Amino acid sequence: NMTDTTFLPPLIAAIQAEILNNEEEISALDRAIGDGDHVTNLIRGLEALSKLNDELVQLDWSAAFMKIGMTLMSTMGGASGSLLGSMFVSMGKEAKEQDIDLAGITAIYAAGVESIKARGKADIGEKTMLDTLIPVMQSLQSDAEQNSDKATVLANIKAAATQGMQSTKDMLATKGRASFLGERARGHIDAGARTSQLILCVIADQLSE
Ligand code: ADP
Ligand code: MG
Ligand code: MG
């Protein structure tokens, strides 16, 4: 139902724990082909979200997503902060129009991904977080069409996120800081693709419980 956001605080805590568990690895990814700060930016954003907990549970999905988006925009910093911030603001707007069923969640998520594509002027294949986010959108869209059961939807989210993240390894970057490196960016997984994959897998695991 549209008003129940009590799942958000434990979900944010689980995401925080997963990012902290992988802090060293993520830091090394952004050091290799970026400026090294991606994990710090994300941890700062998640800390700000965890302080919203009491407030978030008072809000419906739409208002909670908007609040999350504005908070990420104002606290996180980096390219990823403004992109993820705009993703959640757009999901908040779309959530006003949708039921919270598989089709509705798919439409909400797709609106978020479209806003990152528009804001970052990027698409799949450019070695960014979109290489994780877009395959998950496609997997949701196909599962929504086929009316797949919950276990299938969640397993497909994890598989699409993981394949998408891994696909960035051999790509050349055409957007973001890694694009300055040309061929030297090849052989490294994109940091934003990795954190997006970790987050989506935590969400899938939490929802399966
Ligand atoms: P910054 O690059 O400003 O230091 P971060 O390190 O926090 O910001 O985030 C870098 C991540 O942002 C990259 O790994 C990539 O996934 C993502 N990113 C950068 N530019 C774009 C873009 N134009 N579109 C989509 N994602 C992008
Ligand atoms: Mg960086
Ligand atoms: Mg930076």
UniProtKB/TrEMBL annotation:
DhaL domain boundaries: 6-205
UniProt-recorded name of the protein: Dihydroxyacetone kinase DhaL subunit
Signal peptide: none
UniProt KW Protein biosynthesis keyword: no
Species of origin: Methylophaga sulfidovorans
Keyword Thylakoid on entry: no
Domain of life, source organism: Bacteria
A GO term for molecular function: glycerone kinase activity
GO terms (BP aspect): glycerol catabolic process
Keywords recorded for this protein, A-Z: Kinase, Transferase
Gene Ontology CC: one annotated term: cytosol
